[in-house]
Amino acid sequence: MAKGLLIVLSGPSGVGKGTVCNELRARMPKLVYSVSATTRHPRLGEENGVNYFFKSREQFMEMIEKDQLLEYAEYVGNYYGTPRDFVEETLESGRDIILEIEVQGALKVKEKFPEGVFVFLLPPSLDELKDRIQGRGTENQATIDHRMSVAADEMRLLEQYDYAVVNDEIDHACRRIEAIITAEHCKVRKPADI
Ligand SMILES: Nc1nc2c(ncn2[C@@H]2O[C@H](COP(=O)(O)OP(=O)(O)O)[C@@H](O)[C@H]2O)c(=O)[nH]1
Ligand SMILES: Nc1ncnc2c1ncn2[C@@H]1O[C@H](COP(=O)(O)OP(=O)(O)O)[C@@H](O)[C@H]1O
Questions:
Q1: Which of 157, 166, 130, 159 is CA-nearest to residue 146?
Q2: From the record, what ranges are coiled-coil (predicted)?
């Protein structure tokens, strides 16, 4: 059986990765979502095992030592990582999986899965990005400033991705990503790619 597609959706904080990913999951019920582990505290309404697996620093370090993470990254003072087994089992079973992760982690996944589909979500402008992070109201000003300075560096990594999608409107961004997934399924795989 053909393996599933590994789709990595990345881009700067606040660009709308979470929002677009949720909408895609609603539109593509067969698309499997990888739930990450993190040392960040849960936000109001977030559930363990649904949004993230919330871990202590010690538990996270243990996952690293046991090689249970496909990749991990430290981002604005917290660790985030992708549980490996779930991704590999999903792909083996022929289902597509989407990882919504920040850019350093995405590039580590690319080293291990060069055949993955790497999608970079762009804001319509940096001003709009700041408005979105502020508008979400989940971070204090210092964290917002830190995330904005990280965002400028993150944008430079765009050229290492396969696709750039501007998140102007959620519906438009989702349609573009759906089109990318459809196209990837239609792609003729050369023996060297398999
Ligand atoms: N490398 C990596 N990044 C992750 C993972 N899970 C989430 N992230 C990213 O970590 C960053 C911070 O996530 P979070 O604190 O939930 O804030 P938000 O996504 O900006 O609302 C975001 O860019 C996420 O996409 C993961 O497993 N690995
Ligand atoms: N296309 C869009 N137009 C306007 N606002 C958006 C759009 N996409 C996301 N947002 C808003 O921007 C904020 C950041 O989105 P979020 O999905 O949390 O970003 P990320 O996961 O990349 O950090 C949220 O308040 C969200 O509602």
A1: 130
A2: none
Token representation of residue 51: 């949004």
CB of 145 within 6 A of ligand 2: the answer is: no
Q: Which domains does the chain have, with CATH numbers?
A: 6-193 (3.40.50.300)
| 13, 147 contact by CB (below 8 A) | yes
Q: Where are the alpha helices (DSSP H) in the chain?
A: 17-27, 57-65, 84-92, 103-112, 126-136, 141-155, 170-186
* CA 25–ligand 1 middle distance (angstroms): 17
User: Which tokens in the block code for residue 22?
Assistant: 């949720």
- 29 labelled binding-site residue: no
ipTM here? 0.96
pTM here is 0.93
The rounded distance, in Å, linking the Cα atoms of 162 and 187 is 14
Q: How far is the CA of 101 from the centre of ligand 1 (A)?
A: 5
When pLDDT is averaged across residues 39-65 and rounded to a whole number, the result is 97
Packing angle of the helix pair 17-27, 170-186 (nearest 10 deg):
60
Write down the mean pLDDT value for the chain. Answer: 93
What's the CA gap between 119 and 165, in Å, rounded? 7
Residue 16 annotated as part of some ligand binding site: yes
